User: Fold this.
Amino acid sequence: MSRIYAEEGIGEIDFNDPWMQQHSQRLIDSYQWALGKPLLDIALYQSPAEIAEALFLAEFALLSHDVVDGPKGRDNVYNYSNRTGLKVFQRSWQQQVGLASSQSAEQKDNPQAVRNNRLAEALAKGHAVFDCERVTGSGGRVVLSSVVLFNVFDVVGVYLGQAALIQPQNYSYR
Assistant:
C-alpha cells in the first residue's frame, strides 16, 4: 500500500522509503534512550510506514541533523524534519533537508557559538534543554524555548547526529 504525503509548501514525503522508516525508528529509539520516555507510542501503529507517517504528522516539531564535512569544515546538516518542524521554520522538505543548521542561526552576536556549546553538552550528557532564536525560510525570526536536543544513534549504537524536539507551545515569531 502506498503511503505518500503531499502538501503545498511542504513537499512530497514517501513513508514507504526505507530510509524514512529507519530514521523515524532511530529518532524514536534515541529519544527513549536519552530521556527515558517515549516520543511516540509505537504500539498504536502496525507498520514502519505508519510509524514514519505518525512521527511526520505529530504536533511537536522534530528536526535532525548529521555531521558533514564541507568546504568550510564540519557542519551539522539537516537530514529530517517533520511537518510541524517544516511549518515552524517555514521551509519545504526540499529547502530544509540538506541545509546546514548554521544557516538557520542569526549571524549577529555569534549565537552559533552558543548553539555549538549546547550540541557539545548533548553529546556529553545524551541531551540538553535550551532556548534560542533561529531564522526562518522567509527571513523572519522564530523564538524557541525548552528545545530538547538529543543524540541520535543507529541500532548498534553508532552516533549519527542529533535531533531537536520543540513542543507546540514552545515557539513564537517576532
